Amino acid sequence: MKQLQPEGRTKAGAGASFFNALRRDGSLYIFALPGVLFLLFFCYFPMAGLVLVFKNYNFRGGIFGSPWASPLFQNFLFFFNSFDRALRATRNTVFLNLLYFGVTTAVSVALAVMLADIKSRKFVKITQSIMFFPFFISWMAFGSILQSVLNYNLGTLNKLMVFFGGQRVDFYGNPGYWWAILVICNVWNQAGYSSIIYYAALTGIDPTYYEAAMVDGAGKWKQITAITLPMLRPTVIMLFMLSLGNMLRGNLAMIMGLTNLNPALLPVTDIIDVFVYRSGIRSGELAFSSAISLYQSVIGFILVMVSNSVLRKIDRENALF
Question: What does the DSSP 8-state code read for residue 278?
């Protein structure tokens, strides 16, 4: 009995401290409640559906009533049975995501640095609004715009090339052009949004650093390379670490909107999500598509954890956790 009393007091003290914290910070808990409920209902509770990955799904039985797959990992084998196509889809997804992040980050940082040097706040706000606008345009609308530019007979670009004595180019029949086209479209869509993040980071830099650099005779370019870019480094690292979690995820809406899943362009545009859509969802193989989604999530999680462990050894201050 003597040993139980301190434990009871500890529990009572913990309960009292919880209610005291709830009474003291009740408004903060209320503000956090909608976000917590959103995560529970739309992110965590649906995880019960992952059982579908190991099921031989049929519409009559549903997720929980369908029989178990035999072998248990049958739905994963569907993707890797056609190893060449699976390897191509994985290669395209990773390579495009690396290109997206690298080029978009470079353009976004450049835009943020230029905006930070503009003195007129009104002009900055107007410019940011204009740059941010493409982020809200659907990829279907992007596809229509791109079609009017790249169309073989009526496209603006082909008309200009013919006008200057060149030859028409069949952009929609040659996949080699689409590495650059997809990157340009992604920059057009994402650069304005990302530049706002970097611009916010730039506004937090102490201006005395720049004043000291000017006293030492540093020009604008030297200030950017010696102060601005090093100060932005933690933000770039953090965003890159977060993007690693989606390294095996592609933008299906983007590919569908821009190419309409043109078979001639699949050597470049056949990312994992497109492969899953063509091979699984169209034929009603929901278990297969769920298995590949789990595969993408697990690999993304491993990439984030491993890269964070490496970063913590190299540069502990910039690690995520």
Answer: I
